[in-house]
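Complex record, two chains
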Amino acid sequence: VPGAEAASLARAQGAAGAAEAIACAHCGLPVPAGLAGEEPAFCCGGCRTAWDVLHDAGLARYYDLSERRAARVESSGRTFEEFDHPSFHELWVRGRAGGLCETDLYLEGVHCASCVWLVERTPLAVPGVARAELDMARGIVRLAWNPAATRLSSAARFLDTLGYRPHPFRGARADALRRDEDRGALIRIGVAGAIATNVMLASVALYSGRFSGMEAEFERYFRWIAMLLTAPALAWPGRVFFRGAWSSLRGRSLHMDVPVAIALAGAYARGVANTLAGRGPVYFDGVAALVFLLLVGRFLQTRAQRAAADSGELLYALSPPTARLVEDGGTREVPAEALVPGMVIEARHGETLPGDGVVIEGEARLDRSLLTGESRPADARPGDAVYAGTVVHGATLRVRVERAGEETRVALLLREVERSAARRAPIVRSADRLAGVFVAVVLVLAGLTWWGWSRVDPAKAFDHAVALLVVTCPCALALATPLAITVAIGRAARAGLLVRGGDALEALAKPATLVLDKTGTLTEGRTSLAEWEGDDAVRPAVLALERHSAHPIAAGFAAAWPGVPAAAAAGVTSTTGGGLEGEVGGRRIAIGSPAFVLARAADPAGLAARGGAGAHTPVLVAEDGRVVARAGFGDAVRPDAAATLAALRARGWRTRLLSGDATPVVLAVGARLGFAPEECTGGASPEAKLAAIEAIARGGRVVMVGDGVNDAAAIARATVGVGVKGGAEACLAAADVFLARPGVAPLAELVEGSARTLGVIRRGIAISIAYNVAGAALAIGGFIDPLVAALLMPASSLTVVLVAWRGRSFGSSNRDRDGEGPVR
Amino acid sequence: MSVIYIVLPLALLVVGAGVAAYVWAARSGQFDDTTTPPVRTVIEDDDAPPSGDPK
């Protein structure tokens, strides 16, 4: 394919150019040829501003840090006036002691140690800010400032200048609730653990006393100690099981908590009776250990499934929070919540529209890729309908708002995302049903054991029934799945695959239908030069003209030829939807769409007729009335896509391509990646994508991979949604899995690791069931007393823990298998 | 052996103090964020701004 060759040629040139370039003084990325030569040199204006700001604030020590953020500084340049608006303060700002105000802001782009250093030095750069504390893992900074000395917008502008664009953090309330829950769980686990170990010590004394002989006085003493220690374990951390069992009985549905509560209460009561009587076994160590282990299992499980619930809140944090209102001839920034239909707003180059409406003034190009997945920008003229969430390019638009806030198309889409995410609950419920059946069987068996033995040997009946309850304690079963999943998720995270919740791993383990988005997922998602045919001598002139344009095509030329020096152009005129014209070195140059250029130049070589159909946007270059070159712009396919898809198909996955881009483009890319034409769907709106996923989901499991807001609803609806690196945050928020490494190659790794994880889970469950069945048989037969049962029980848990730990899931190296704990 | 009547309650008192310290730490939010503080200490320096009070 000539296009692919040209694209790889362009990439090779790009790489060669980068190798010679000097590093940017701020971010360390290569400096483009046009900007080199100054000292210090910067890759972009954003980095220069950040460098100046840091030196002015006396924070130049930042450049001594060993690890720095290697990313271009892309500041929005906004004023953040709306952060000072009274309605903003009412919503997000809290009063603190000493007249300080406090708020939580979500910062984009926080991901390393240097970010912590920089963000937490805001008080040094912005006088009046009292403190800034960053939670790096979640990118949330807590700012406290003195409203008499400064405004929140000053701090917001400082952070924005450094590339950390602030948003109000809208999940603060849910976050506080969850924090209290987490603290409570940690306290319960700690207390239960401390009690369990100490009861265990007393029990060790008792057991060794049994073999080596112990005076009755001390035996009684240790029994009392164990009994008194175990009581608070039941009354405080263990209370959750009794409460759970009670509400489960009241709700007439059997839950794991019921046998746990019965076993705990029964064993403790029997232990108390035997302690008072001074004979027979006590079960205090088993009771205390059970409370501790079950609490740990539960904590791991909630943590693993927690992140899925975050999606909705994050979505709200990402809708544009501000609008520039036009009134009385001037403009004023207001929170987006204040918009109502009929207002006129202004959106400048690079800004996101805050509401749906109609253009009343200005001509610009709109990047709708976030909303529709279409890679080519569309023109907007007065009278055109525009939607919230699209980005304005090239000029300023004035728009009359028709729908705002919750009524916009993007808001409806995001609500669909939440609804789909909530609908996914049935998987969890089926796990609960399984536990219910298990519980019922155990209870019936215990009852039968007691009834049967009371006819044979009434004195032993209770001991045997308790032994059964203890030995079939589901705690190995309860640990098997959460532990294997937590270990796998931790290892996957180290391999750059961020997985939320175990459901995703289970669903990815077996082949199903894999639906992929095109733009940004299988392709790079940028307009880049894919074909170039014609006179290379015209290149400096092309760059000269394109310097005067903000069009993505201009950026595409600049990125493809970093080493080519740009000439100077004069008298440049631009026609929206057409192209550029101007004088370079005395020659008249025209660049643009075939219609634009052919209206001004002859094409004796027939260049306009060449080139592939559909896949690329053609651009012609004319010199002095003659077409001299033809370029094709497209979205380059990721180099790892073909191999990854082949590997997945070999594993039995069915693959489909679902894109919002024009059908011919989708078919061309699909053919190159081995999709049959009937497997490719183009022109799909976000709603159509959701419908397509729903249709497939009715027939089986479906995995959706995408990157845009337009994929978010489909990703949330799919059995498993996967977001790729560089995608829109709304899409990532809806996804179960986020590939933190560029490209789609991690997909194959994800599927393989999931299959292995499922194997580990199955082994764990098989082992614990084998223990339970054998133990139950022995208990029913009256061969084990509750003491032996209490010893068998932790043995099965221990085996399951070892299986989960040593089992191979993600990452193949031995380093991953040794030592380190799960990371979350 | 009767020393055990004194030593064991003493040991349990120590355990109780440890548990109380742990409960205080968890309640005051010491375990809320376990990612950022280790990073913060690595790059801490003299001009560090006053650090925040417990939430």
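Note: The radius of gyration of chain B is 19 Å.
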